[in-house]
Amino acid sequence: MVVKLLHEKGLKAEHAYTAAFASIGLSVVSWAGSLKGEPAGIARADRWGIFVGEWAPTFFALGLALANYERDHDPHHSTTH
Q1: 3-state secondary structure (DSSP) of residue 80
Q2: For residue range 21-49, what is the model confidence (pLDDT) as tens digits?
């Protein structure tokens, strides 16, 4: 199971959530940078923004999977928060 392997390597749900929010910001930055720096104009900028923006749902899903794994398998995980 991939989630178990990632958890054993030290990846936590909080890391995945942080990556998701960072990818949202990176999507805006890459869109704005591509808009100004690419001669292809807004079409290429939109593609870059969408490409990077598609990472966020993946990271959020991974965060949820890790949170569920931590809840069910980590003896140090508190269930009272």
Answers
A1: coil
A2: 999 998 888 887 777 766 666 777 778 77
Q: pLDDT for 2-21, tens place per residue?
A: 899 999 999 999 999 999 99
DSSP three-state, residue 77: coil
d(CA 78, CA 66): 14
Query: Taken in order 38, 41, 47, 52, is the CA torsion positive or negative?
Result: positive
Question: CB under 8 Å to 68, separation ≥6 — which residues?
Answer: none
Rounded to the nearest 10 degrees, how much is the dihedral formed by the CA atoms of 68, 72, 74, 77? Answer: 70
Alpha helices in the chain, H assignment, sequence order: 2-8, 13-37, 42-53, 55-73
Q: What is the pTM of this model?
A: 0.76
